[in-house]
Amino acid sequence: MIFDRDIRHRVAVPTPTLPRPTVGAVAVNRARWGDLAAVSRLQRRAFRPALAYGFGTLIVLRALPNVRFLVARRGGAVIGCAIGDRHDGQTRVINVAVDPDARRRGVATALLRALERELPRGDLLLMVEVENLGAQALYRAEGYLPVGSAADYYGRGRGGIWMQKGRDGADDAPPKLRV
Ligand SMILES: CC(C)(COP(=O)(O)OP(=O)(O)OC[C@H]1O[C@@H](n2cnc3c(N)ncnc32)[C@H](O)[C@@H]1OP(=O)(O)O)[C@@H](O)C(=O)NCCC(=O)NCCS
Asked: InterPro entries from the entry (predicted)?
């Protein structure tokens, strides 16, 4: 995930088609305003307090036109989210979270793939904590490779790894990495 302090300087992108429902009984769709309280609870369950996006940040992200904000639902309950954007010519995955009770069933994979469809332009960039080996395994499985590091990104002694996924036929110039 990318810290909310780094989410700024928005640019407009065209409205893409809605993602397709996926993963059996799990549906992935754009977040509705009424989902945000559940996503806020999900953030607190998925991340330690310093990393969980608060309700205010989620409202801002939901409102911004260049942000794509998806949720995974099972039986009507929000069990995951994925948020990405286009920022200064770069496509970014800025947050992926799955409820602890719903992990290792392909939910994050479905969310990530749907988010990539929602953000079809350019290569993809994300940040993951050095010690978050599970998320790194997910991203590697989906074609992301490490391209840089940032010491103390997540706090003193908690480094981050930039991971990137190139996409064939991307209609942009090579991404401008800020690592
Ligand atoms: C990381 C996270 C999003 C993965 O969600 P998930 O729905 O369990 O992921 P998936 O089921 O789609 O996993 C797909 C593959 O990724 C890898 N993977 C996912 N979680 C893993 C883990 N904890 N350990 C090792 N590999 C893991 C596996 O290869 C997995 O395939 P498999 O289950 O067939 O072995 C989830 O654990 C989470 O929300 N963690 C806390 C928040 C977080 O770290 N977000 C990412 C921030 S960068």
From this structure: Acyl_CoA_acyltransferase, GNAT_dom, YpeA/RimI_acetyltransf
